[in-house]
């Protein structure tokens, strides 16, 4: 096989796997619930479920966000709290999916007037766009934790 044929075979295999993931995301009721959150699609929902399951091992949403490396590193002592940059420790795949989903939400946020959109627009106008994307990804991970542990649908009025 030549290089062109190899690439075509890879493209076909990727398309097959994408269809399998989308089918799983449509059939799993928890994945369907997670996809109610803006910025979480089939890939992100199935990746979150594969990584954390029902998220009961975390006592709060911050712990789950730490797993994905979406929280600031801390360098604290003597009662002084110092927060450094985002740690980027933990599972890179769900983190990148959450950040890319957050970028998509930020891009469409100006057309919406809900609380989450106004919050992220305020951050995006005062800070670097990447900081806003990671902040929204962090919030999305915490929302996902709440939905997983409480087995509830997404309720945007609470955000």
Helix percentage range: 55-70%
Encode the helix/strand succession as letters: HHHHEEHHH
Mean of all residue-level pLDDT scores: 88
Strand content: under 5%
How far apart, in Å, are the first and last alpha carbons?
A: 53 Å
The structural class is mainly alpha
Task: Give the CA-based shape.
Answer: globular
Largest sheet, order of strands side by side?
1-2
Roughly how many Å is the radius of gyration?
18 Å
The tally of helices reads 7
Give the strand tally: 2
What can be said about the biggest beta sheet?
2 strands, antiparallel
Stretches where pLDDT is under 50 for at least 5 consecutive residues are: none
